[in-house]
């Protein structure tokens, strides 16, 4: 299975990821799509034997994902953040096993943060009110906690196994999102097109994560998060007042 990693000044994280033997075993071919890094991200990728697509601009994560997805081969591919590590190649094989169900469009593992906590990486689609409460209360509102595989509204796209047909069916990621909410939108559109998004919490990978969108309201990441939320709800106005994929109009696959 191929894997796609998008970078922007991600040299340090990428160096660790590409030196991770189980990750390289699970993904013999890795394509690194670089969004105009000023650090050594490209050199690190090339030295580690990854294929590199240097885009020369940092317009959006979504555009980089789409460019890299066009280079993927095979029925399935991995979409990984550069700050994700796996401890066993069998974890990827276990996730891939879910695609024996022809309705599954994407599968994600649980993500373990550096402090040992499990990230709230699978959630219900939030309303604006829930986003505000989540931001100012610090609580993990809408988080899905399960001990067994479960279909969910959306998952954080730090580590996804994606069915290529599903990706192409919905036209990939929406390039109108510069950063944030592109994974929420991607999963909502998968559901709307009849595909299932699944979390397998029995598979856990490590995520060296920085929650920049929860910084000060004066910070650029927070302001970008608000802009992306605005785009999401303008495109999905039916999700403004209540949550849950059960309200999405979709055919049965």
Overall number of strands: 11
Residue share in helix:
25-40%
Assigned CATH architecture: Alpha-Beta Complex
| pLDDT averaged residue by residue | 87
SSE pattern, N- to C-terminal: EHHEHEHEEHEEHEEEHHEH
Helix and strand composition category: alpha/beta
Radius of gyration, rounded?
17 Å
What CATH calls the topology is Spore Coat Polysaccharide Biosynthesis Protein SpsA, Chain A
From the spread of the alpha carbons, the general shape counts as globular
Distance between the termini: 24 Å
- What is the count of structural domains? 1
Q: Roughly what fraction of the amino acids lie in strands?
A: 15-25%
Low-pLDDT windows of residues: 212-218, 245-253
Under CATH, the homologous superfamily reads: Spore Coat Polysaccharide Biosynthesis Protein SpsA, Chain A
| Major beta-sheet overview | 9 strands, mixed
Number of helices: 9
How would you portray this structure in words?
- The protein is an alpha/beta fold.
- The protein has a single domain, classed as Alpha-Beta Complex (Spore Coat Polysaccharide Biosynthesis Protein SpsA, Chain A), CATH 3.90.550.10.
- Helices cover 32% and strands 22% of the residues.
- The protein contains nine helices and eleven strands.
- The strands form two sheets. Strands 1, 2, 3, 4, 5, 6, 8, 10 and 11 form a nine-stranded mixed beta sheet that branches.
- Helix 3 (41-47) links the parallel strand 2 (29-34) and strand 3 (51-54).
- Helix 1 (11-18) runs parallel beside helix 3.
- The chain is globular and about 50 Å long.
